[in-house]
Amino acid sequence: MPTTPLASSQVTCMLPVKDLARARRFYEEALGLDVLGAKPDGKFVYRCGGTELALFPREGGTKAEHTAVSFRVDDIALSVRTLQQRGVKFADYDLPGLKTVDHVCVLGSEKAAWFQDPAGNILCLHEELA
Q1: Burial grade of 17 (CB within 10 A; 0-12, 13-18, 19 or more)
Q2: What is the DSSP string of the chain?
Q3: pLDDT per position as a tens digit, 52-75
Q4: What's the first-to-final CA gap in the chain, in angstroms?
Q5: What pLDDT is stored for residue 2 in this prediction?
Q6: Do 103 and 113 contact (CB within 8 A), yes or no?
Q7: What is the C-alpha to C-alpha distance for residues 130 and 127, in angstroms, rounded to an integer?
Q8: What is the structure's pLDDT at 1?
Q9: pLDDT, tens only, 71-130
Q10: What pLDDT score was predicted for residue 97?
């Protein structure tokens, strides 16, 4: 099968934020992401493993009601505890097919936990099972 230019390209996830300074404090202090820095077009970029996450100012912030970014972690319970100690507030759910225990839900072949950034972007941690 032929390879396309996208198959080996760097991926950048774009997240809209209302208040860039507030968002930067969250991503740097609470999440501890590696700073790459500001871009001439107003974006602020972080490195996350082999990808980049770019915050861009947008007056209305996010309009998404779904998970915008999911971070794969090796130990979700430890990751939740670590981020809670840094001020991250996790969501809890008790719905048919979606129930969290200690902020974590088992979904088929993975565990997941959700939280929001200051702009309302929904972020997730997930740990693959087996």
Answers
A1: buried
A2: -PPPGGGG---EEEEEES-HHHHHHIIIIIS-PEEEEE-TTS-EEEEETTEEEEEEE-TT-----SEEEEEE-S-HHHHHHHHHHTTPPBP--EETTEE-BTTBEEETTEEEEEEE-TT--EEEEEEE--
A3: 999 999 988 788 899 999 999 999
A4: 29
A5: 65
A6: yes
A7: 10
A8: 62
A9: 999 999 999 999 999 999 999 999 998 999 999 999 989 999 999 999 999 999 999 997
A10: 87
Which whole-number Å values give the CA distances from 89 to 10, 31, 33, in the listed order?
A: 30, 12, 17
Q: Which residue has the tokens 């500001």?
A: 38
Q: Is the dihedral of CA 41, 61, 97, 105 positive or negative?
A: positive
The residue type at 71: F
Q: Which pTM value belongs to this model?
A: 0.91
C-alpha–C-alpha distance, residues 77 and 48, integer Å: 20
